[in-house]
Amino acid sequence: MSEPKTIGILGGMGPAATADLFAKLIAATDAKTDQDHFRILIDNNPRIPNRNDALAGRGPSPGPRLAEGARTLERAGADFLVIACNTAHAFQAEIEDAVSIPLISMIDATVDAALEKGGERFGVLAADGCRRAQLYDRAFETRGAHSLMLDADTQVEFMELIFKVKAGNTGADVRRRMEQMATSLNARGAQAIVAACTEVPLVLSSDALAIPVVNSTDALVARAVAFARS
After folding, report:
1. pLDDT tens digits, residue range 48-59?
2. What's the predicted TM-score (pTM) here?
3. Which of 76, 122, 136, 162 is the most exposed place for a label (fewest CB within 10 A)?
4. Going from the N-terminus, what domains does the chain have, and what CATH number goes with each?
């Protein structure tokens, strides 16, 4: 059999979410020896400018840094790219223009995984920048489905939770509040919850809810593994 493709990860957004993606790629591999695993290259760059601030017009664009990281991974031997951040996909075109290798979209992978669960209305827990760029709104709409977002006040609190997770707080209070936010979307008609920020799966699982939780990291892992083996 031919050797599997080398995976390049644009990471650091944030580091814990990147480590989660890496660990799940390893866990998804049916390996009996070291040599059975994928070659994975990671550019864990936490100096990439804040995506939410950039999309709100409050800070510099992360596009140039993301493009630079993509070129670095391609030169190092990556056959394709993934991004350990949903919001960074707002700059996908800039990344793709910088390299000759493909980028596997976390957004597309997650929406397709959600639709496999069935239903037409999906609650989306996403960061401000991801919402502003309408990444999930558009992806669901093109597939004939609808996304439900948190109300404005709850979204402010959601962002506070995300930065607590980034700071290492994954305690019971953070988990409980994230579960309550997901439940509120279910009460408004969501038939599944999309963990559309890579920090959310660190504190939310489907075990806590009466409806499925679609983990964007898991969805990306499944697609990346399949592509690496193709």
Report:
1. 999 999 999 999
2. 0.93
3. 76
4. 7-105+218-229 (3.40.50.1860), 107-216 (3.40.50.1860)
